[in-house]
Amino acid sequence: MPEADTILVVEDNEQNLELVEFLLEEAGLKVRKARDAEEARAQLAAGRPDLVLMDMQLPGTDGLTLVEELRRDPRFARIPVLALTAHAMRGDRERFIAGGCDGYIAKPINVTSFVDEVQAALARSRAEGEVRA
Questions:
Q1: What domains lie within the chain, and their CATH numbers?
Q2: Of 69, 117, 132, 133, which one has the fewest beta carbons inside 10 Å?
């Protein structure tokens, strides 16, 4: 049986983090958590995830700045990153994509489609040869 994909969830809101973790684990995915950019860097150094769900409003270094940092680092540049954010105004999606995110999931998340969106991002990445088969 293949090993489950690993998702790094970078989210400072504990309730959001618990909900996302529950949904992903119920779908058979492995979840690693970080509550800020510093924890995210430590999690990345500990092992490359298959995908990152990045809250854009983090304490200290914001999510978009962290994504830009990841894109400059050859070890992490090709990890798919989905913005996970309450910023749902016109132009936000485009701004996050332009900043290096591969996709966008608005909060509050839709619990019926959330896992499908994550799985679709993993499948796109796998098709591009970035995630193990």
A1: 6-127 (3.40.50.2300)
A2: 133
- Angle, helices 37-46 vs 63-72, to 10°: value is 30
CB 25 within 8 A of CB 19: no
The first and second tokens of residue 19, run together, are 């909900």
Cα 22 from Cα 29, distance rounded (Å): 10
The model's pLDDT over 70-119, given as tens digits with 9 standing for 90+, comes to: 999 999 999 999 999 887 778 888 999 999 999 999 999 999 999 999 99
Looking at the chain, list the stretches that DSSP marks H as alpha helix, in order from N- to C-terminal side: 14-26, 37-46, 63-72, 92-98, 114-127
> What CA dihedral angle connects 16, 84, 67 and 128, to 10 degrees?
120
Q: Which residues make Cβ contacts (< 8 Å) with residue 106, sequence separation at least 6? A: 85, 86, 88
Cα three-residue angle 51-120-78, rounded to 5 degrees? 35
Which tokens sit at 75? Answer: 């070890």
Q: Which tokens hold the place of 79?
A: 């990890």
